[in-house]
């Protein structure tokens, strides 16, 4: 049976990618209809009937808000931060003290606390509207209540349409030395200096649309997107962000969850008819045993959820490449499948590794024209960070537990059927198929970088080593002089 093949010019190749700041820690676009943190995994919840409409958190002022996991975000552990949000404050919010975003805590009226339960304490706030006689917006931080705020006032926002707000806070200069800057639509409104540090901010609550003051009304309007960075964006970056606007509904995106290994291909934009895909990983980071193919599962031979009128064919299913196509001339409609969400794996489809080298290419019909699309690739989970090289047990620290894993596999014959992604977790850090002295040097450099110069030597000196490992290390010179024996691995 012939397979549909297209020779496409470079002009027909569309690349879909989204740039992201290295400092971006948490991102809430609301484009999936939920309070999902697509970067840091700190997912929130909709409260009291809050809804998401057309990718925007929509609040009617009647108690609705989004609740974020304050402790998970841990903004008081930052020394610098930038908050970005796109807000549309309804005219009804005018003359009211509302907060579009707030981190902090409520007053503790318990015995001995000496606080007012109606007040907010130790907070950061982005306030689109103020009370009667205070027709302006405000961004502020405080290590007490309103009387101790360090803040900047801006223009009226209620009833003026969507506005881009950015607040930068820098507490890196030392204790009681913080600078706050407030931007509207990319323009600097003002800067204030004070003694209210990020470390002083309460870590009890984080809200979108709700105030830390018990008697304040709830925000009326919508929030299109909310971002949290662990650095201070420059004025140029803020201006560029304002110009670019919030993230629209995502186009074709391959999402890989570092924590679970789940792999999903999705599209939130206009319908796209996909008739082939190829996913590759040079290090062998794909797991065929945990992969659900389109063929026999999501096509006409399966449940038809992706392509109800065509039977697909799997042409490659290995650790380095998984490829599927709709065959030409199979009697089907030959129009591909409509890409919404295809879940290739709910667990283990991606093999945990410090190497994030997955690539994907799809072929699709765009306005009836065969086109090569290169979807965006998004890794999520693990706090928004890749795994560290030499973190062999993937717990985000390089310590004695990783040394034990490395020690137990050094100079040990590794299974030739394992891929580079798999052998890396056993100590083959340079991807040459063996764990030897060269890998030891890599591990030592990573261990000392994480724990201090000489840390691994101190650990090895304090922990008795198996005789085989000691003998192996003493024989390393001979091993290197005799040349490295390579082996050919198969990836199945």
TrEMBL record:
- In terms of superkingdom, the source organism counts as Bacteria
Q: Which residues form a coiled coil?
A: none
Q: Which UniProt keywords apply?
A: Signal
- Could you tell me which SUPFAM superfamilies the record lists for this protein? Concanavalin A-like lectins/glucanases (SSF49899)
The stretch of residues making up the signal peptide is 1-22
Protein name stated in the entry = LamG-like jellyroll fold domain-containing protein
The record lists the organism as Lacipirellula parvula
């Amino acid at each position: 049976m012939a397979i549909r093949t297209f020779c496409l010019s470079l002009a027909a190749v569309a690349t879909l990618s989204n740039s992201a700041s290295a400092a971006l820690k948490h991102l809430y676009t609301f484009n999936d209809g939920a309070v999902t943190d697509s970067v840091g995994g700190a997912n929130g919840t909709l409260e009291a009937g809050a809804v998401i409409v057309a990718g925007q958190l929509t609040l009617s002022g009647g108690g609705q808000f989004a609740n974020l996991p304050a402790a998970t975000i841990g903004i008081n552990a930052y020394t610098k931060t930038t908050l970005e949000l796109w807000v549309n404050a309804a005219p009804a919010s005018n003359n009211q003290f509302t907060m579009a975003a707030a981190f902090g805590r409520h007053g503790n009226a318990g015995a001995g606390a000496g606080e007012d339960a109606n007040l907010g304490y130790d907070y950061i706030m982005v306030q689109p509207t103020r009370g009667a006689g205070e027709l302006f917006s405000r961004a502020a931080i405080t290590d007490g209540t309103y009387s101790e705020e360090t803040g900047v006032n801006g223009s009226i926002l209620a009833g003026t349409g969507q506005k881009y707000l950015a607040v930068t806070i820098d507490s890196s200069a030392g204790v009681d030395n913080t600078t706050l800057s407030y931007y509207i639509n990319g323009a600097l409104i003002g800067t204030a200096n004070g003694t209210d540090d990020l470390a002083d901010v309460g870590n009890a609550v984080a809200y979108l649309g709700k105030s830390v003051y018990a008697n304040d009304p709830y925000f009326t309007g919508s929030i299109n997107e909310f971002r949290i960075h662990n650095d201070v964006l420059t004025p140029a970056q803020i201006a560029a962000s304002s110009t670019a606007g919030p993230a629209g509904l995502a186009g074709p995106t391959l999402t890989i969850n570092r924590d679970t290994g789940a792999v999903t291909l999705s599209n939130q934009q206009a319908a796209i008819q996909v008739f082939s895909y190829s996913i590759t990983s040079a290090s062998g980071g794909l797991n065929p045993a945990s992969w659900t193919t389109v063929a026999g599962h999501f096509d006409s031979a399966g449940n038809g959820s992706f392509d109800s009128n065509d039977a697909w064919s799997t042409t490659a299913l290995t650790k380095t490449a998984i490829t599927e196509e709709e065959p030409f001339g199979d009697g089907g409609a030959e129009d591909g499948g409509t890409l919404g969400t295809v879940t290739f794996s709910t667990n283990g489809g991606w093999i945990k590794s410090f190497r994030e080298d997955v690539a994907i290419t799809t072929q699709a019909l765009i306005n009836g024209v065969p086109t090569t699309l290169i979807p965006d690739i998004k890794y999520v989970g693990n706090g928004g960070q890749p795994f560290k090289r030499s973190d062999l047990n993937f717990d985000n620290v390089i310590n004695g537990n990783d040394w034990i894993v490395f020690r137990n596999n050094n100079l040990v014959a590794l299974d030739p059927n394992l891929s580079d992604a798999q052998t890396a977790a056993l100590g083959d850090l340079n991807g040459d198929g063996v764990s030897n002295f060269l890998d030891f040097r890599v591990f030592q450099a990573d261990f000392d970088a994480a724990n201090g110069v000489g840390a691994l030597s101190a650990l090895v000196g304090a922990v008795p080593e198996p005789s085989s490992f000691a003998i192996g290390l003493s024989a390393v010179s001979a091993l290197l002089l005799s040349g490295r024996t390579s082996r050919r691995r198969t990836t199945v």
